[in-house]
Amino acid sequence: KDIYQNLLSAVYQNKKLLAILLDPDKLDLEQTKEVASKINQSPATHIFVGGSSFNGNHLCDLIRIIKRNSPLPILLFPGNSNQISAEADGILFLQLLSGRNPDYLIEHQIKSVPVLEKTNLEIISTGYILIESGSETAVERVSRTKPLDRRNHDFVSQTAKAGELIGNKLIYLEAGSGAINAVPLEMISNVAKRISIPLIVGGGIRSRKAIDDAFNAGATMVVIGTAFENYPNFFD
Ligand code: 1GP
């Protein structure tokens, strides 16, 4: 149960963490071993598994293959309560703080309790904040919520702080997978200054410079999904 402790120490030691997000909908079991070996050659420190619309079908098999082929911690990043597997090491237990849809604020969480109780997953309560990114993203469509205005820095950092005060252990600033525009750097910086818990940033980050910029702005962890999915040699 030390995934969160490592994230916390990363904040205090100013270490930067990188997660590669695998969407089970876009990954065949046959490809998974090779993908895991690509991840091992990259600077990734964590593997996230999840997607907005995946129904959980081959999740356990997929995670088993990743586990056999990579030493990195595997965290579930679930789009709904079907995406839970005891095979992973932990779960980002998400609460969509930017939206006002009760399904994603509490309903899915309640539904997942009986499943979670049967696992040993490290459960990390995460305030998830969707930021407007230039066009409608899958999270927006599936959650039927509006992202927060990318110009309203104060409201976003206030939302993040409320998440911390509620008891979330992480804040995830999300532009949405494949976003045209990533979360603005100034916004990352404002949120990082206002909260004292680790900050994850993802969505639309697709270059080495964009990763470095997000770290320099204050992200503890950057998440890369689409860029790695489209170019498995991205980190070369
Ligand atoms: C999505 O933040 C992640 O939830 C990753 O986004 O696919 O755009 O890298 P990308």
Automatic annotation (TrEMBL):
Coiled coil: none annotated. InterPro entries: GGGP/HepGP_synthase_sf, GGGP_HepGP_synthase, GGGP_synth, IGPS_HisA/HisF. It comes from the Bacteria. SUPFAM superfamilies: FMN-linked oxidoreductases. Its cofactor is Mg(2+). Prenyltransferase that catalyzes the transfer of the geranylgeranyl moiety of geranylgeranyl diphosphate (GGPP) to the C3 hydroxyl of sn-glycerol-1-phosphate (G1P). This is Geranylgeranylglyceryl phosphate synthase. It comes from Flavobacterium aureirubrum.
